[in-house]
Every structure is written in structure tokens, then in C-alpha cells.
Design brief:
about 450 residues, alpha/beta, Cytidine Deaminase, domain 2, Rossmann fold, 2 domains, 9-stranded mixed sheet
């Protein structure tokens, strides 16, 4: 694929005339100096944006096409992440040439998008198709990207990453960043958060370790290696969360980010995997206890303990770098907040629910578990009726202003919030199995029905 060089140069020149005043050239040059160490860059894209891209890039005529995306950016601990926010197709009619291995187009349509990107600190990603399936960048692609992104850096005066991605007819994706000097660096991974979760990586680990061999016997080497690349956030590290953490670690995920501000108490010991009476006596943090439990396995999973509330800056920053997030919370407020956070960071979100009701004298009225899979930009827990806004607001008030909460509750202006509810370890384990198996089904579709038929899975054992 190649864009007309004179178009790109003209675009860059128009922007330079606006930027360059006395002393500006030196400042820009210093700002763009390459870092001593190269940070990895990742890309995340939601299923709805991928559907838009595929429809435009593969219209059925076996010719190349091109589109752009404006992306939010997250600077994580080990990588920068580009988060697709908006897709901007270049109309086929605006392309001067569209052939099986070449497309040329005018850059005039990009001026408005680049202005918005510059004012909002967004990244720019170019997507184009290889309808004949060539799984590498061509020399034409190299020249095109260098010409184009020289213009992009002329408009957007920051050090954040921009990228170029190729999609082949069979859905394979690969990409690279382009620095201000025209240097290329492969994208570390591209995550597609769709009905099926796809991870397109530059390379996967080699030999399957002994502890994962039997996983590979069922799911194959590729899915097993995808698990070994995943960074997974788990919010809520008590009954259900501790089982989710145990299962994910034994499945071999690369990293677990554990978020929970609470400490182990004697009343937790009936349901937290690995917790002991000594932990309760020492009032240890749940994230530290579970982190130590994972470390004792010796399977190579890294743990980042985050002993803060979900709304804290520390938790948000740590979770933003995760590929996938699990919510193992009872509260409507917490589940609603994590749903919104995952949508913002373009992450697949797995919500785990447990419903136990008894009459207090041994009569069991309801024993139910549920797994909810939430994609960015699609239906939410609120829209599905899984959580309620009024209940979430009541929970937030009970925590922030308990006196006002009690007053309003006594006057029946708001609904009550349960302080303690039944908890049974075997039911927690059942719920955890359901939600972890949902992750496996999304990574390696094995159900008889396609994944778009299974947004929620519920099981009632009564």
C-alpha cells in the first residue's frame, strides 16, 4: 500500500507553517529524540470497531483499502497501549488507485482528524488490507508509512506512539509503531475484544511447560500460549475472587493484578483459598495472602498486589494495563464502576455473581451463580438489569456518608444495603469455575452455540 508522497509532504508542510516560530525547531527536535530504551506498544480494539473496519477494508472486490483510527493512550508499567476510539474509513471513491497489492489516496481527509488528535493527545493508527493474504509489510508499505507518519508527527507534537496495522482476508492482524525518525518496531500484541477474544502477537513462547501440557492436550498450543501472554486483573479477592485467582494461576496466565483494600478476618476463613488463622491474626492484606499463595505454586505467574479501592488512582492505573479484567464483587457500585472502567480501556470484562437466599433457620430459598461477559461498546451490566443505579448510589452513600444514608433509609427514600449475606465455599468455587470457563470459551470457542449467543450464563442448583 502506498499513499501519494507529494500529498503527505503537502500535509506536513501546512502543519509546519503553523508550528514553526523562532526557536520551535530545536524544541521539537529535542522532544522527539528517541528514548534510550524502547518501550513495547500494544493495541486494543473492540468488536464493533473491528466490524466497521472489516466491512470497509474487504468490500468483496479483492482490492486493498485503507482506514484510520483515533486512539486513546494508556502508559502502563511495561508498555504503552493504544485504545481504538473511532474508525475513520477513507472512502473507496477517494482512492486514486485500488488494486490487489496497492492503494493510493489523498491525505486531505486527514486534516480534521489530525487536528482533533493533536488537541486531545490521541494516537493515530493506519489500517489497510492485504486481500491476497500477504502476512508482512511490503517495501511500498514501508515508504508509505514513513511518508505518512512524518506528516502525523508534524501535526501531533508529543512523544506518544502511532502505529500501522495490516489485516489479511482471513482476519490475521500484525502491526508496528513508527517513530519520528521513520524507525519501525513491531507491536507487542493486538487484542480484539469481541464475542471471541483474539490475541495477535508478534511471537509466542516456545515449548509448553510441563504443568501446562494437559491444558494443551485439550486447547492446543496456541490457546495455551495465549494464556501465557495474558495480564489479568481481578477486582475482589475474597470468596469467589480467591478461587478465580487460583484457577487463573494454574492455567498459567503471565500476570495477575489483584485489587482489594481489605484484610483477612476470621470470618473470611470459610471461603478464601489459602488463607489461614495466622493470616487473620496478623490482619494481613488479602492481596498479599493470595499473592503469596500464587508464588508458592512456582508456575511463573507474576502478581501485582494493589491494596486500594477500585476508584483509587493506583487501582485504575494498574488495571488499565491488563488485557482482561474479572469482577468478583457483591456491590452494585463496584460492578458498575468496573464495567465503565473496562469499556474505557477497551477490555473484555468477566463479571461473576452469586445469589444465596435462606430463611435464617436452615431453609434454602435460592442458590444461583452467574457469569456475565461484557464487551466494550456493547450491552452493559446496567442495561441487562444485573446491577441497578439506585442500589449503586445507595451503596456509595452508605460508605461515604453513613449518617445521611441511615436517615434516608429510615424515611424509605432509598433501598437498604445488605451488610452481610450468606457465603458458602462450594458455591463460590462453582461461580469461579463458571466465569473462568467463560474466558476459555472466548479464547478458544468450543461451545455448540457461537459465542454471540452467550452473553450471560446462569446456573441455579435449587
Amino acid at each position: 500500500m502506498v499513499a501519494a508522497p507529494n500529498e503527505a509532504s503537502a500535509l506536513a508542510a501546512r502543519r509546519r507553517r503553523r508550528l514553526e516560530s523562532p526557536g520551535t525547531r530545536g524544541r521539537l527536535a529535542r522532544a522527539r529524540a528517541p528514548e534510550m530504551t524502547t518501550r513495547r506498544t500494544r493495541l486494543r480494539i473492540a468488536g464493533l470497531h473491528m466490524a466497521e473496519l472489516r466491512s470497509h477494508l474487504f468490500p468483496g472486490d479483492d482490492r486493498e483499502a485503507v482506514a484510520f483510527a483515533l486512539c486513546g493512550r494508556h502508559r502502563g508499567r511495561e508498555a504503552d497501549v493504544l485504545l481504538v476510539q473511532e474508525v475513520l474509513p477513507i472512502p473507496h471513491a477517494d482512492c486514486r488507485v485500488r488494486e490487489r497489492d496497492r492503494v493510493t489516496w489523498s491525505t486531505d481527509a486527514l486534516e480534521g482528524a489530525l487536528s482533533r488528535a493533536a488537541s486531545s493527545g490521541l494516537g493515530v493508527v493506519k489500517f489497510h488490507s492485504h486481500p491476497r493474504g500477504c502476512a508482512r509489510f511490503s517495501e511500498l508499505d514501508d515508504r508509505s508509512d514513513r511518508d505518512l507518519f512524518e506528516s502525523v508527527y508534524g501535526w501531533i507534537d508529543d512523544e506518544g506512539p502511532h502505529a500501522s496495522v495490516v489485516i489479511t482476508a482471513d482476519g490475521f492482524m500484525f502491526g508496528r509503531t513508527i517513530d519520528s525518525e521513520g524507525g519501525f518496531e513491531p507491536l507487542d500484541r493486538i487484542l480484539l475484544a469481541d464475542d471471541d477474544i483474539e490475541l495477535h502477537a508478534q511471537r509466542f513462547e516456545g515449548m509448553i511447560p510441563a504443568h501446562a501440557e494437559r491444558h494443551a492436550q485439550l486447547f492446543g498450543e496456541r490457546t495455551t500460549n495465549v494464556l501465557r501472554r495474558l495480564s489479568v486483573g481481578v477486582v475482589g479477592c475474597s470468596g469467589t475472587g480467591s478461587f478465580v485467582i487460583e484457577m487463573l494461576a494454574r492455567l498459567g496466565v503471565r500476570e495477575l493484578v489483584l485489587v482489594d483494600p481489605d484484610r483477612v478476618e476470621y470470618r473470611n476463613l470459610n471461603r478464601i483459598v489459602g488463607a489461614t488463622s495466622v493470616d487473620a491474626a496478623l490482619n494481613k492484606l488479602k492481596v498479599d495472602v493470595l499473592g503469596a499463595q500464587v508464588a508458592r505454586m512456582g508456575l511463573g505467574t507474576r502478581v501485582l498486589p494493589v491494596p486500594f479501592e477500585l476508584a483509587s488512582r493506583e487501582a485504575v492505573q494498574a488495571l488499565g494495563g491488563c488485557d482482561v479484567v474479572f469482577g468478583c464483587m457483591d456491590s452494585h457500585a463496584g460492578r458498575l464502576a468496573l464495567n465503565r472502567l473496562a469499556a474505557f480501556y477497551v477490555q473484555p470484562y468477566f463479571d461473576c455473581g452469586v445469589g444465596l437466599r435462606g430463611d435464617g433457620t436452615g431453609g434454602v430459598e435460592d442458590v444461583a451463580v452467574a457469569s456475565h461477559y461484557v464487551q466494550p461498546g456493547r450491552s452493559t451490566l446496567l442495561g441487562r438489569g444485573v446491577v441497578r443505579q439506585q442500589r449503586a448510589e445507595a451503596e456509595a452513600m452508605a460508605r461515604a456518608d453513613p449518617d445521611r444514608y441511615r436517615a434516608l433509609r429510615s424515611e424509605k427514600y432509598i433501598e437498604g444495603v445488605e451488610v452481610d449475606s450468606p457465603a458458602v465455599v462450594s458455591i463460590n468455587a462453582l461461580a469461579a469455575s463458571l466465569v473462568v470457563n467463560e474466558l476459555l470459551a472466548r479464547l478458544h470457542p468450543f461451545r455448540l452455540e457461537p459465542n454471540d449467543r452467550a452473553a450471560s450464563v446462569r446456573l441455579n442448583v435449587v
